[in-house]
Design a protein that fits this description.
The structure is a homodimer. Chain A has helices at 74-82, 155-167, 201-210, 224-231, 245-252, 279-284, 301-313, 330-339, and strands spanning 3-9, 22-28, 44-48, 51-55, 61-70, 92-100, 110-113, 120-124, 134-135, 176-178, 194-198, 214-217, 236-241, 255-263, 274-276, 288-291, 321-325, 345-349. Chain A is α/β, with parallel strands linked by helices. The model of chain A is unreliable at 38-53 and 191-195 (pLDDT under 50). The first copy, chain A, is built from eight helices and 18 strands. Chain A starts with a strand and ends with a strand. The first copy, chain A, is globular and about 65 Å long.
C-alpha cells in the first residue's frame, strides 16, 4: 500500500496566493492495474496543437515518485481556469518510475509530467484522461543535475528558445529586450544582445553576470520609458514579454519600426490591470505581436533539449536554481517565486 | 495670380472635432519656379519603409487644383502629431495639374497627393520637403469615377487588400471579422466570408447588400461578445481591426487558436480608452497581431490598383460614396464621417 502526500487547492486564489489557499493531505493510492494492451504496441493519436501526442486508452498503470517539483508563475493563473476547489494543485514534477506494468516506461526511468502537487502517483502512461509522461532524453549526462529538466533544459528553457527562434526569429546583432529577466524563462535569454529588466539590484548583478549588456531595476528607475530609451536609444528589434502591466506599455514606445514581440507571460498581477489600448504604437511602428505556448513546438523538443544540453556541457549556458527542500514547503516556495525572491529557477526537492 | 482657399487647423482637437477647430482662409500662390533639373531625368531615392520613393530636390514647380478631397479618420489622430496650430489641415486630394514646369507631370494629368485642405497648390513634384505626387494609373477607364482613386481604388482599398492578403494572409473558406465594416476600408473587405459589425441598422442592411454573411449593429446588441459568438460559434480566423475600444477586447475572446489580427485603425476615440491587458487571450489562443500602414507595400500599389480596377469593371466590387459638395463644407463632411453618418466612402467634391 503506497501513500501519497498531496497539496489540495482548498480555496481559489483571490489576489496574491496565501498559505490558507492550500491544504496538505495524505491519500492511499490504488493498486496498479493492467490495461490489457501494451503502451509500446498500440497507440491512439490525436492532434494537439501542431504536434502529435500519443495516447493509449488501454495503457497499463505506472507508479511514480516525485523527485523535484517546478513552481512557476502560470500555476497561479491556470488554477482558476483548470481546477475546482478541492482538486490537487496543478504542477509539474520530475519523477522516477517506481513500479510499472507498461513496458514503455521501465522502472527507474525518469519522466517529466504534470501530475500536480503530489509525492506519488498511480497513472496510466499517456491515457487520454491522465497527464502526458515525457521521458527525459536518454543521453542526459550524469554530471548535469536532472532538476534542470524542469528549468533551463526543460519547459522554461524551451520557452525562451522557441520565443526567440520561432516567434521573434531573432537575427544576429539585434537588440532584444526581456522583462522578468531574472526569472526562469528570462534568464535563458542569454548570449544575445539583451537589455534585461528585473526587480532588484541583486537581480541586476545576476543578469550582468549572465552576460546581459544592460540591466536595470524596474522598481527603482524614475521612469520605465526613459530607462528603456537610455539602455538602447535606437530602440529594440525584439521584446520578450513576460510581465504585462506598465512595462508592456513602456516597451511598445521603445520598439523599432517592424519590431517583434513574443508574448509569453503576464501572470504576476494581484488584480486585473488596465492599459491604454495599444493600437497607436502597434500601428505606427508596424509591430508584430505573437502569443505562444511552448507546446506548439513539442515535435522539436527532443532535438532542442539536446542542443541546449550541448551548450550546457560547453559552458555556454549559465544556470541557477533556488532549491527549497521538503514537499511540505511547496506553497512557501511557490509564493516566494511569485514575489520574486531568489535568483534562478525555483525548484522544490522532495 | 492664383488664389487658394485653405482650411487652417486653428486649434488642436480636444475630444470630438468642432467647426471652431478650423478657419477658412485665402492665400495668394507664388509663381511657378524652374528647379533647373528635370524630374524625369534625375532622381534621388531613399528607403521609405519597404519601398523606394523618388525625390528630386531640384524638381520644378507644378500648379495643381483639387477636384475631390478624401476625409478619413486618421486625419483626426495624425493632426496632433504632425501639425501645429495655424498649419493647413492635413489631407489627401485628387488633383489635376493646371500648369507644369516638370515634364514628368504634364498639364491635365491626374494625381493623388497629400496637399492638405487647400483648393490650389504650388509644389515641386516629389521634392524632399513637399508631398508625394502619385499619378493615377494611365489605364483608368473613363466610365469609372476618378473619386474612387481616393476610396475603394485608392488608399482605403489598398489598405483592405494588404491587410487581408499581406497581414492576415487569408485563405479560402476562412472566417473574417471586420469592425467599422461600413467604413471606407471595412466595406472593401468583401467577397469573403465576413462577419461585419457596424453602428446602425441601415449600415447592416448595406453590409448584407455588399455580400457579408452576417452583420450586426454593435450599438444595439446587448453583448458584443455574445453577438460575435452567435455570428460565428466556431470563432474567427482573422480579425480586421479598425476601431479599438471594447470591440477589440470582445473580438480577442472570439478568435480561433492561431488567429491573425490585422491592426489597421483605432481612431474614433473621444478620449484615450483603457482596456484590460490583452495578454491572456493573446497567449492562450496563440494569436498574431500585426500593425500596418498601407505605404509598406507602395511598390505593389500600381499592380494592386490594376487588379482592383479589373474587379470593378467585372462588377465584383461594390463601391459607394457619400459625396459632400463644396470646399467650404470640408469640416462638416469630416465630422459627419467621424460620427459614422452616411454609407460609403466620404468624399468632398470641390
Amino acid at each position: 500500500m503506497v501513500k501519497s502526500k498531496t497539496w489540495i487547492l482548498k480555496k481559489h486564489f483571490e489576489g496574491f496566493p496565501k498559505e490558507s489557499n492550500f491544504e496538505l493531505r495524505e491519500e492511499v493510492l490504488p493498486e496498479l492495474q493492467d490495461g490489457g494492451i501494451d503502451n509500446s504496441y498500440i497507440c491512439f493519436c490525436y492532434l494537439f496543437d501542431a504536434s502529435l501526442i500519443y495516447h493509449n486508452p488501454f495503457a497499463s498503470d505506472v507508479l511514480v515518485e516525485a523527485i523535484y517539483f517546478s513552481v512557476d508563475p502560470y500555476m497561479r493563473s491556470l488554477s482558476k481556469m483548470w481546477l475546482k476547489e478541492g482538486d490537487v494543485q496543478y504542477g509539474t514534477q520530475l519523477i522516477r518510475v517506481l513500479k510499472s506494468k507498461d513496458s514503455a516506461f521501465l522502472e527507474g526511468c525518469h519522466v517529466v509530467a504534470d501530475c500536480g502537487w503530489r509525492t506519488h502517483t498511480v497513472t496510466k502512461a499517456n491515457s487520454p484522461a491522465g497527464p502526458i509522461l515525457t521521458q527525459i532524453v536518454s543521453e542526459w549526462p550524469s554530471d548535469i543535475p536532472m532538476s534542470l529538466a524542469l528549468g533551463s533544459l526543460g519547459m522554461p528553457g524551451l520557452t525562451a528558445l522557441y520565443g526567440l527562434e520561432e516567434v521573434c526569429k531573432i537575427q544576429p546583432g539585434e537588440t532584444v529586450l526581456v522583462s522578468a529577466a531574472a526569472g526562469a524563462v528570462g534568464a535563458m535569454v542569454v548570449n544575445l544582445q539583451v537589455v534585461g529588466s528585473a526587480g532588484g539590484d541583486d537581480k541586476v548583478a545576476y543578469l550582468k553576470e549572465l552576460g546581459f549588456d544592460h540591466a536595470f531595476n524596474y522598481k527603482t528607475v524614475p521612469s520605465l520609458e526613459e530607462a528603456l530609451e537610455k539602455a538602447s536609444p535606437e530602440g529594440y528589434d525584439c521584446y520578450f514579454e513576460n510581465v504585462g502591466g506598465p512595462f508592456f506599455t513602456a516597451a511598445l514606445k521603445n520598439m523599432k519600426p517592424g519590431g517583434r514581440i513574443a508574448v509569453c507571460g503576464a501572470y504576476n498581477d494581484t488584480a486585473p490591470q488596465m492599459c491604454p489600448y495599444p493600437h497607436h504604437e502597434i500601428i505606427t511602428r508596424q509591430l508584430k505581436l505573437e502569443g505562444f505556448m511552448v507546446k506548439r513546438w513539442r515535435h522539436k523538443d527532443e532535438e532542442s533539449v539536446k542542443r541546449m544540453l550541448k551548450w550546457k556541457k560547453e559552458g555556454k549556458l549559465k544556470t541557477k536554481e533556488v532549491v527549497t527542500v521538503g514537499f511540505e514547503n511547496m506553497p512557501i516556495a511557490f509564493m516566494k517565486m511569485l514575489k520574486g525572491d531568489g535568483l534562478g529557477k525555483a525548484i522544490v526537492k522532495v
